Amino acid sequence: MARTYNVIDADGHILEPVDLWAKYMDPAYRERAPRIIVDADGKERLLVEGKVLGSQKGFGVIGAIGARQGDVNEATMKYVDGRPGGFDPHARIPDMDLDGIDAAFLYPSIGLFAGAVQDPGLAAAMCRAYNRWLADYCRPYPDRLFGVAMLPMQSIELAIEEMRFARKELGMRGGFLRPNPYNGRMLHHPDYAPFWQEVQELDFSIGLHEGASGGMPRAAPATSSRTRWR
Cα(148)–Cα(138) distance, rounded to whole angstroms? Predict the structure, then answer.
C-alpha cells in the first residue's frame, strides 16, 4: 500500500559529517578536500582552495536549533554540536515525527559552498563524495528521506556526468543548483543547453537554492532588456 504524504519538507538540510571527505572522496583529491577551521576570530569557517568561507557568525550556528530563541549559545556552539538528526538519519526520523513531517527532500549545508570552488575536477570530486554519502544517509528510510544531488556546474560536461551517476547509480530523482553565475554564465546561458536537454532525458528535477551566500559571485543587474537577453 502506497504511503500517504500530508506534510513534506521541500527544503530540509543535512549536516555533513567531518569525516565525509576521508571516507567518500576520491583519494586523488582528499588532500584538497574542504575542512572546517577555527578562524582568527575564534569562529569556525570553511577552508577550501586556500579561501576561507563562511558568515560572521561562523559555522557553529548551522545546526544550532534554538539559537534564534536563545536556547543555544551560538557564540560557543561548534559545528559538530549540531542537531544529531542532521548527521544521522536514525536520529532525524523522530524529529520529523515530532514535527508531523512525512517526508523530506534533503539539501547540503557545507555543500552549499561548493559553487565557490574554481577547479572543476575538485568540484566534481566533492559532488561525487557528497552524493554517495547522501545516498547512504537516505537508504534506511527510502519512503521518507529523498536526497537532492549536488552538481558541479563549473563544468557542463562534469555536471551531466554527475547527474547521470546520481540518477542511474544512486536512484536520485533531482539535483540542485545555485542561482549564481558559474564561470560568468547564468543558468539560462545558451552553453547550458546540453545540460538542460539531459535533465529532460533523465526526467530529473532541478531545484534552485538561494545564492545570497556561499562565496559565489552574484549576477550583475541588467541595465536594459537588451543586455538581459543578449
Answer: 10
Q: Residue 106 CB: number of other CB atoms within 10 A?
A: 19
Longest dimension (CA), the chain: 55
Q: What is the pLDDT of residue 213?
A: 63
Q: Tell how far CA 169 is from the center of its chain.
A: 19
pLDDT of residue 217: 78
**Helix, strand or coil for residue 110?**
helix
Q: What is the pLDDT of residue 219?
A: 65
* DSSP code for 223: S
Contacts of 227 (CB under 8 A, 6+ apart): none
Nearby residues of 107 by Cβ (< 8 Å), 6 or more positions away: 11, 12, 13, 14, 148, 176, 207, 209
Structure confidence by residue, pLDDT tens digits, 161-178? 999 999 999 999 999 999
* Residue segments in the chain with a per-residue pLDDT below the cut of 70: 1, 66-71, 211-213, 219-230
CB neighbours of 46 closer than 8 A, spacing ≥ 6? 34, 35, 36, 37, 52, 53, 54, 59, 110, 113
Burial class (CB in 10 A: 0-12, 13-18, 19+), 42: exposed
Edge to edge, what strands does the sheet with 145-147 contain? 8-13, 103-107, 145-147
Q: Cell 513534506 identifies what position?
A: 8
pTM: 0.91
Question: Which residue, 113, 91, 125, 147, is CA-closest to 216?
Answer: 113
Please give the helix or strand (H or E) that residue 194 lies within, else none: helix 193-202
